[in-house]
Amino acid sequence: MKKLINDPSNVVAESVAGFALAHADLVRVSNDPLFIVRADAPVRGKVGIVSGGGSGHEPLHGGFVGPGMLDAAVPGPVFTSPTPDPILAATKAVDGGAGVLHIVKNYTGDVLNFETAADLALMEDIDVRSVITNDDVAVKDSLYTAGRRGVAGTVLVEKIAGAAAERLDDLATVARIAEKVNSFVRSMGVALTPCVVPHAGEPSFILAEDEIEIGIGIHGEPGRERITMEPADAIVDRLLGPILEDLPFDSGDEVLLFVNGMGGTPQIELYILFRRAAEVLAERGITVTRSLVGNYTTSLDMQGASISVLKLDAELTTLWDAPVQTSALRWGK
Amino acid sequence: MKKLINDPSNVVAESVAGFALAHADLVRVSNDPLFIVRADAPVRGKVGIVSGGGSGHEPLHGGFVGPGMLDAAVPGPVFTSPTPDPILAATKAVDGGAGVLHIVKNYTGDVLNFETAADLALMEDIDVRSVITNDDVAVKDSLYTAGRRGVAGTVLVEKIAGAAAERLDDLATVARIAEKVNSFVRSMGVALTPCVVPHAGEPSFILAEDEIEIGIGIHGEPGRERITMEPADAIVDRLLGPILEDLPFDSGDEVLLFVNGMGGTPQIELYILFRRAAEVLAERGITVTRSLVGNYTTSLDMQGASISVLKLDAELTTLWDAPVQTSALRWGK
Amino acid sequence: MYLTTAWALAWVRLSAQVIAEHRSDLNTLDREIGDGDHGENMDRGFGAVMGRLSDVSDDAVPSEVLKLVASTLISTVGGAAGPLYGTAYLKAAIAVTGVAELDAAATVSLLTAARDGIVLRGKAVTGDKTMIDAWNPAVDAAVARQAAGGTPLDILSAAADAADQGAIATEPLVARKGRASYLGERARGHRDPGAESTRLLLRAAVDVVAV
Amino acid sequence: MYLTTAWALAWVRLSAQVIAEHRSDLNTLDREIGDGDHGENMDRGFGAVMGRLSDVSDDAVPSEVLKLVASTLISTVGGAAGPLYGTAYLKAAIAVTGVAELDAAATVSLLTAARDGIVLRGKAVTGDKTMIDAWNPAVDAAVARQAAGGTPLDILSAAADAADQGAIATEPLVARKGRASYLGERARGHRDPGAESTRLLLRAAVDVVAV
Ligand SMILES: Nc1ncnc2c1ncn2[C@@H]1O[C@H](COP(=O)(O)OP(=O)(O)O)[C@@H](O)[C@H]1O
Ligand SMILES: Nc1ncnc2c1ncn2[C@@H]1O[C@H](COP(=O)(O)OP(=O)(O)O)[C@@H](O)[C@H]1O
Ligand SMILES: [Mg+2]
Ligand SMILES: [Mg+2]
Ligand SMILES: [Mg+2]
Ligand SMILES: [Mg+2]
């Protein structure tokens, strides 16, 4: 394992410190407990939005802190949910009197720690609502699993809920919109290589030179099936199939197509996936009216990608287009 | 080699096709000859800016096409300069009557092919000026080399020259500013792993499990020296040393610090490098007033990074801050 | 024979030691069917507990030790294990609040409350391939041993033996909770890391008395 | 004996074949001290030339064949080799424009003009470890052979032999032009890919006559 790091146990702290230096115009960082807030937090009268989870998925979530998206991000250790303390502290730091929304990816650890933090915040009279994202169709959402995982679709939930909060929608509305985005988005990923967690120093799993993992999670959790390498177009078809089946995407629908890199896959490949995905959607009469391509929800240095499709309506499209000023997503105003 | 591609010989065409679909609001693509222009090209009365070179460095250059930056990008085959035909065609497509600036990275192939295209354009009465970028301090700029290579600093040249063109500076001024940025920026990179060119299917060089290449080029060309793996901070010191020595960066200077990922290195590591680089600069009394962190000039899936330091003055700072609307860099307006 | 504050402190110290020793084994188990950090998480937590153990006053009762462990694990472990174990120690502390010397009944209450805390948060049942697969038989054995007139040590010992079996019994299972549930059939043949850490912690509770 | 259009066409065909056969060798040489695409680039170029060869009219002179090669290489090869070889064929075409049958003097002019075209664009000198290290001795040998009264075939043969030597002679050198110049001392021990392709092309010019 070669990584551009110092002591593996300082990876998150040093990276966040660099992030704070690079983006001092957008964010402030609290070191103990560790969280990132937008520079002007708390914004009076605005719903605060807090997300977080294990590190290693950058730019998720710190890269999305700023006007029009998150008010705070709480980075845990690599691939490990943060504890309630920093979540609570971040929640307090962004409470502008209109309540706080927690956006939580559906993993047992994240859910439990955010739950505790929300309980503690309620005890301090902060109105907290939580939305659990679970867009990963690779996992069956049933009594026999911990439920679907929250993956790259979370970015879309954060962007759109962030826009709603920025225009001063109230907490119930922001939560409703976040739930709606989550219910309208489906994702699935593929890994060509495992990722290497700094403190482990070993790959999270082993793939043979001609094997890929379809339905990979964002922590190197194994996916649905391991298959022999295929051309990009065939892989796209495998990912899109379950996505389109799961939510009735119909002919005539408008969608946002999001091709997300896992961290180690170059952009030139992501656009090859985008091309095929757009083609398949067009064949089904689905129009791609918005798009996002890049490394937005990563798994450290994993090579691979995920595809997310979000069904758009007028409300979501308007909020997607609204200005956003974060280090990783930025447009408008 | 596992890659998310179809036929290796279609990599560039399919990727550009996906790019065009994803960013139809910003760009148009000509397929034969292959080039990317901003959607509203040519802009009357504005200097057109064309860059290009081998593919595999995305988002360089296509990701920088749009208002405030490039008018056109000409992608060659992977790591191979484009031929004069598409460069000429792109030059004509962006000529708004105020002349065209070619921004060319200093590699023999790029220089020669752009030179021919410029000659042909002059024959068609288009006023063409060329600026050759050569910011890589890893290579000695002497009679005994092909000169310094143009690497990540090229992004800064393109952004700042683009801003000058957007405010309708004339060709001589835009060229002067581009030259100035090039003369004020220095870069150096490190590779932890080689990259794999699709049609080759084999790594461009071999590094042992504990070896890294200091002074790597952006095509997997070997660098200054191969050393045993070191902590990130020590590597930053190795890269910054030659950069700071080369251009007299003095105490009191303001700089833009740019940590560029080579494609396979996750963001969490890039910010660790940023942290140390900012620290070293601070120790020397140099103030980082602008920053850029991310995968902007890549080498396919190579793991590694480069550091660029650009000395800022009021003119460059104003132009850096000016609005830019491209798929890879976007702010303002 | 009663379980005292000395026992509680010794248990915590041995727990920290055993977790540190098995840090990499637990990571490996978790790498196989999870995300490879369970040893890391538990070791970070118990390391922090050790750092705060001196905060326990000289006249403390066992529940104060358990509460310190609870709050420290909650605030340092993260992941799934942090809130689950944290709640376990917290509920255990509540169950024996203020009691200086734990008799057989108190020992069973402590174990039962710990288990119930985990179920409250994680909603797992036996066979889900989680730490509950070690806790449930441990608590059942403890209850049975008390009914049969066992001492606190007998009870701990029965619980630890049952937890050993419970941890082993997770191996052939498909998981229905936690990250391993994403694996489907591929989880079979691997021991659940949380069941393994439960086994180690309950064994440490006995070993400090036996020694 | 003169070099005719039939020779020129045969030379181009054999060149395309030889380059295709050595595509991967040239890539390998270039991977060692460059970016690994020289075979790819040349093969793409000569493949395109083959596709356009039927555009040459029946009554064409050799310079028309050379011009077609020139424009095709310029517009399809890219990289350093495209403009360099493109200019070489273009200048060679100009040197023998309109001549139907090339005698010894014309053969030497062709080779000299080609070499000069490369130098004009690339500014390399002998010892820089580039294709010029094959071209310079080739042209020198051609001039000497003509002075000694050689036929066009003798001249091509001498040039090809000298180019072989020139290509080999690049092996111990440090490069001062092209990508290999970034390597410093590490370029020693590797043959320059452009010198190798030059050697192959000049050898093909002889082989089509000899066969
Ligand atoms: N719902 C649950 N109920 C009980 N135990 C659980 C539950 N979910 C996970 N676990 C336990 O947590 C362990 C994993 O802990 P750890 O690796 O520290 O957290 P994470 O899964 O967040 O990385 C599993 O081995 C399992 O025993
Ligand atoms: N300035 C130059 N003069 C002559 N030949 C050169 C020069 N620069 C490079 N070359 C030749 O070009 C060859 C490399 O060609 P190629 O690999 O196709 O292009 P690129 O280097 O752009 O990838 C080198 O082996 C060398 O022989
Ligand atoms: Mg974890
Ligand atoms: Mg090349
Ligand atoms: Mg785990
Ligand atoms: Mg080459």
UniProtKB/TrEMBL annotation, chains A, B:
Keywords of the record: Glycerol metabolism, Kinase, Transferase
Residue span(s) of domain DhaK: 7-331
InterPro entries on file: DhaK_1, DhaK_dom, Dihydroxyacetone_Kinase
Gene Ontology molecular function: any one: phosphoenolpyruvate-glycerone phosphotransferase activity
A Pfam family matched in the record: Dak1
Highest taxon listed in the record's lineage: Bacteria
Name of the protein in question: phosphoenolpyruvate--glycerone phosphotransferase
Organism: Cryobacterium psychrophilum
Lineage, highest ranks first: Bacteria, Bacillati, Actinomycetota, Actinomycetes, Micrococcales
Gene: dhaK
Automatic annotation (TrEMBL), chains C, D:
Kinase found in the keyword field: yes
Signal sequence annotation: none
InterPro entries referenced in this protein's UniProt entry, alphabetically: DhaK_L_YcgS, DhaL_dom, DhaL_dom_sf, Dihydroxyacetone_Kinase
Biological process, per Gene Ontology: glycerol catabolic process
UniProt-recorded Gene Ontology molecular function terms: glycerone kinase activity
A Pfam family per the record: Dak2
Protein name: Dihydroxyacetone kinase subunit L
Source organism per UniProt: Cryobacterium psychrophilum
